[in-house]
Amino acid sequence: MDMQYSPEQLAFRDEVRAWIQSAMPAHIKEKADNGGNFEHEEIMEWHKVLHSKGWVAPNWPEEVGGTGWDVAQRHIFSEELVRANAPSLSPFGLSMVGPLLIQFGNDDQKKRFLPKILSGEEVWCQGYSEPNAGSDLASLRLSADKEGDDYVLNGQKTWTTHAQYADWIFVLARTSTEGKPQAGISFLLADIHNTPGIDVKPFMTTGGTMAFSETWFDNARVPQENRVGPENEGWTMAKALLGHERTTIGGVAESYRWLMMIKRIARDTPAGEGTLWDDPRFRQRVAELEIRQRVVGIANLRTLADAQVGHAPGPESSILKIVGTELYQEVTELAMDALGHNALGWIDSPSDALPVYQQSIASEFNYLRASTIYGGSNEIQKNIISKAILGLPSS
Amino acid sequence: MNFDLTDEQQMIVDAVSKYVENDSPVERFRKLRDTETGWEAKAWQTMGEYGWLGVAFPEEQGGFGGSFVDVALILEQLGRTLVPEPFIASVVLAGGLVSRLGTPEQIERVLAPMIAGETTLALAYAETQSRYDLFDCATKAEKSAGGYTISGEKVWVLNGHSADAYVVVARTSGGRRDEDGLSLFLVENGTKGLSRVRVPCMDGQSAGLLKLEGVEVPAESLLGEEGAALSHLEWAIDRGAAAACAEAQGCLGELLDRTVEYLKERKQFGRAIGTFQALQHRAADMFAEVQLCRGTMYVAAISADSDDVDTRRAEISVAKTQLTRGGWFVQENAVQLFGGIAITDEQDTGLFFKRVRVLQGLFGDADHHTARYQTSPRFELGAD
Ligand SMILES: Cc1cc2nc3c(=O)[nH]c(=O)nc-3n(C[C@H](O)[C@H](O)[C@H](O)COP(=O)(O)OP(=O)(O)OC[C@H]3O[C@@H](n4cnc5c(N)ncnc54)[C@H](O)[C@@H]3O)c2cc1C
C-alpha cells in the first residue's frame, strides 16, 4: 500500500500546473479568479486551447486522440484544471457520446464524428430524459419508426442540458414496443440544425440561467446510418457508459475548490473586530467539511488506484456519487452562510452591493441542488447499492 | 398553557387565507418579481383596509391592539403564496420602532398613513461590516444647527428600494462597535443627500443600498432617546426574526403539502413514487420538522411581546435556529423529491426554496442564534 505520488507524477503535476497558467487566455483567467461563471463561448475557447495542446480528451485511447496518460495522470490533470478554476468543458461529446462511439460505433461513424468532437467544431447534448421517463428511463416514449432509409422521430425529450448551444443530440428512442421496455430502445444521433422537425426550447433553471431545454421531435427524419450499435440495444450501451463517470460526477475536486472559496469569502468578510476567518465557530465548520472532503477524496483515490492496477471498480465506487454530491451541496450551503447578508444577493445584484466573485454563488447554490437528482438520483443509487451490492431482496 | 387560536385569531387566519388564495396566488408574485418595485400599492392599500397592517399596534395609535401572535398568523398565510408586499420591513421593523418610541406627532405623521396602507417604511441598520452585530455601526449623525447631519451607507435594506420613509440607525457618539451611542432617525425618501439603489435579491424580491451623504434632518426626526437605541433595535430585530419564522412557516407548510401531493401523483416504474418507502419516510421526516418549526414559531411569537428580555432572546434564538436547521431539511427534500422539475424556474418549488433561504439568513443565521443562546441565563443556570 502506498499513497504518495511518485517523483514522476509530481513532475507531471508541476508541468500541467505551469502549462494551464501559461495557456489560459487572460480574460478567462480573470473570470476564473472572479468566481468563474463562464459563458458557452468562453468554454469553447478553452476547449480549443486544450485541443491544440492535444489534451482535450485524456480519457480517450491515444489512437483516436487521447493523451496516452494513465489513470493517475488523468486524475492529476483534472485536479489541476479544477484547482485553476478553468472552465469545465461540455461533457456530452468528450465524456459521453465520444467514448460510446469509440466502443460501439462503426468506422464511418468514428471518422465522421470523433474529430469534430475533439476540435470542438461540433457540440453535443444528451437526450435521454422525458417528462414521464426520469428515474424510470426505460419507460421512454420518443418513437423512432423506420421509413425507407430513415427513422422518423416523434415525441419529446426534456431537461436537455445546453441543447441551445448544441449541433447534435444523441437520443435514446423507442424502436420496438415488444418485450421488456429496455429491449426496444435504440441509440440515435440527430443533427439539430439540419433536421426539419427538431425544435429546441430553452427554459430557465432556479439558478437563473438557461441551462436546459425541452427538445421536441415532430416527424424528424434521422438516417438509419446514424444509429450506433444494433437496433434495440441502445439501453445496454447507454448503461455500459454510465459506469465510466462515477469518479468525476461526485464533484470531489469541485468541493475542494469551493472550500478554498469559502476561505476567501471568510477572509474578505468583516465580522466582529476582525474577519469571519477569525471566528473559531466558523473555522470549525469549514474544518469539518474539509475533513469530510478528504474522507470522500480518499474513497475516490481508492477507486482510481484500483483502476490504475486494472481491477474492476470496487463497491466503494458506487458510493461516490452519493457522498460526493451531498458534500458538494454542503459546501455550497456553507458558502452561503459565509456570505452573511450578501447571501440575499443574486447574479444581477450590482457590484457595489455584492463583489463580482460572489455574484454567482447563490445561483450555483440553487442549481447544484440538481447534483443529487441528475445522473441517477441518490435514491436510485441507494436502491442499486442495497440490491446489487448488499443483496437485499426487492420489496 | 394554551396553543389554541382565539375566535378573533381564527377569523384573521380565515380572512388572510381567503385573500391569498383568491387575490394573491403565486402567479401574482411571479408577475411582480421582475418589476422595479416588486409589489403593488393597490394590494398594500387592501391590506390597510382590512386592518392587517395595524393589527398589533395600540388602539390609540390607530391600530387594533392585538398581539404579535396575530402578526405571525397573518405572515404565515402571506408566506403560503409568497405575497411580496413589504410587511416585515414596514409593519414589524420600522413600524414597530415608530410605535414603540415615537412621539404622538411622529406616530401621526409616519405610522398612521402606513397603517392605512398609504405608505411603506423600512429600517436601515445593516452595514457591510456589521454582519449580525446590531451595535456595529459606522454611520454617523452629527449635531448641526437645526438638527443632525447623517452620513454613511446601509446595505440590504428590506423595502429600501421603495419605502416612503426610513428609520435609520446612526451613531451619535462612541466608536464603531460601542454598544452605547446609537440613535434612530426618521428620514423621508427624497431628502437631500439620500440616494438609493435597487438590489435584486435571490428570492425575486428587492432590497435597497442606501447612501447618506450629509443628510440634514431636523431635531424632531430623532426617534426615541439619543444614544440609547440598541435595546430597541434588538427588540425590533428579534421581532423580525419571529416574523421570519412565521412567514417561513407558511412556505414550509406549502412545500410539504405540495410534495406530498406530488408523491401521490407522480408515477415512475409503473406506480406512484409515494409508494416507495424511502420517500414515505422522507416525507414523514419533513412533516416532523414542519411541526417542530410550528411549535417554536408560536413560542417565538408569544415571546416577541414579552417584557422579559432574556426569555425573548432565548426563545427567538431557539425558533430561528430550528427554522434554519430543521426547516432546511424540509426545503432541500422538497426539491429532491420533486426531482428535475424542481430545478426549473417555472415550477414553484424553487421560489419557496429561495424565499425560505432568504428568511433563514435574515436577522441572524443559526450560528449567530446558537451563539446568542449561550449568553442566556437559561443556558448558564438552567431553566426555572
Ligand atoms: C439540472 C439538470 C440537468 C439535466 N440534464 C439532463 C440532460 O442533459 N439530459 C437528460 O437526458 N436528462 C437530464 N436531466 C434529467 C435527469 O436525469 C432527471 O431529472 C433524473 O433522472 C430524475 O428524473 P425526474 O426528474 O423525472 O425525477 P423522478 O424520477 O420523477 O423522481 C422524483 C423523486 O422520486 C425519487 N424516486 C424515483 N424512483 C424511486 C425509487 N424507485 N425509489 C426511491 N425513490 C425514487 C427520485 O429519487 C426523486 O427524488 C437533467 C436534470 C437536471 C435537474
Q: Secondary-structure blueprint of this entry?
A:
The complex is a heterodimer of chains A (395) and B (384).
Chain A: H1 7-23, H2 26-33, H3 40-53, H4 71-83, H5 91-104, H6 107-119, E1 124-127, E2 143-147, E3 150-161, E4 168-174, E5 185-191, E6 198-203, E7 212-223, E8 227-228, H7 234-242, H8 246-249, H9 252-268, E9 270-271, E10 274-275, H10 280-308, H11 316-339, H12 361-367, H13 378-389
Parallel strand pairs in A: 1-4
Antiparallel strand pairs in A: 2-3, 3-7, 4-5, 5-8, 6-7, 9-10
Helix pairs in contact in A: 1-4, 4-9, 5-6, 9-10, 9-11, 10-11, 11-12, 11-13
Chain B: H1 7-23, H2 26-32, H3 41-50, H4 68-80, H5 87-101, H6 104-115, E1 121-124, E2 140-143, E3 147-158, E4 165-171, E5 182-188, E6 194-200, E7 206-218, E8 222-223, H7 230-265, E9 267-268, E10 271-272, H8 277-304, H9 309-338, H10 349-361, H11 366-373, H12 377-381
Parallel strand pairs in B: 1-4
Antiparallel strand pairs in B: 2-3, 3-7, 4-5, 5-8, 6-7, 9-10
Helix pairs in contact in B: 1-4, 4-7, 4-8, 5-6, 5-7, 7-8, 7-9, 7-10, 8-9, 9-10, 9-11
Query: Outline of chain A, from the CA principal axes?
Result: globular
Task: Determine the strand fraction of chain B and express it as a percent band.
Answer: 15-25%
User: What is the CATH C level class of the largest domain in chain A, in words?
Assistant: Mainly Alpha
SSE pattern of chain A? HHHHHHEEEEEEEEHHHEEHHHH
**Helix amount of chain A, in percent?**
40-55%
What share of the residues of chain B lie within helices?
Answer: 40-55%
- Supply Rg of chain A: 22 Å
Share of residues in strands of chain A: 5-15%
The number of strands of chain A is 10
Describe this structure in words.
Chain A has 395 residues and is of the alpha+beta class. Chain A folds into three domains: 7-89, Orthogonal Bundle (Butyryl-Coa Dehydrogenase, subunit A, domain 1), CATH 1.10.540.10; 124-233, Butyryl-CoA Dehydrogenase, subunit A, domain 2, CATH 2.40.110; 250-389, Butyryl-CoA Dehydrogenase, subunit A, domain 3. Helices cover 46% and strands 15% of the residues of chain A. Chain A has 13 helices and ten strands. The longest helix of chain A is centred in the last third of the chain and has 29 residues, at 280-308. Chain A starts with 6 loop residues before the first helix and ends in a 6-residue tail after the last helix. Chain B is an alpha+beta fold and 384 residues long. Chain B folds into three domains: 7-120, Orthogonal Bundle (Butyryl-Coa Dehydrogenase, subunit A, domain 1), CATH 1.10.540; 123-225, Butyryl-CoA Dehydrogenase, subunit A, domain 2 (Beta Barrel); 231-374, Butyryl-CoA Dehydrogenase, subunit A, domain 3 (Up-down Bundle). Chain B has twelve helices and ten strands. Chain B has helices spanning 7-23, 26-32, 41-50, 68-80, 87-101, 104-115, 230-265, 277-304, 309-338, 349-361, 366-373, 377-381, and strands at 121-124, 140-143, 147-158, 165-171, 182-188, 194-200, 206-218, 222-223, 267-268, 271-272. In chain B, strands 1-4-5-8 form a four-stranded mixed β-sheet. In chain B, a hairpin with a 3-residue loop joins strand 2 and strand 3. In chain B, helix 5 (87-101) packs antiparallel against helix 7 (230-265), helix 7 (230-265) runs parallel beside helix 9 and helix 9 (309-338) packs antiparallel against helix 11 (366-373). The relative contact order of chain B is 0.11. The mean pLDDT of chain B is 97. Chains A and B meet through strand 9, helix 10, helix 11, helix 12 and helix 13 of A and strand 6, strand 9, helix 8, helix 9 and helix 10 of B. Bound molecules: flavin-adenine dinucleotide. Flavin-adenine dinucleotide sits between chains A (126-129, 134-135, 159-161, 212, 370, 373-374, 377, 379-380, 383) and B (266, 268-269, 273, 276, 278-279, 336-337, 339-341, 343).
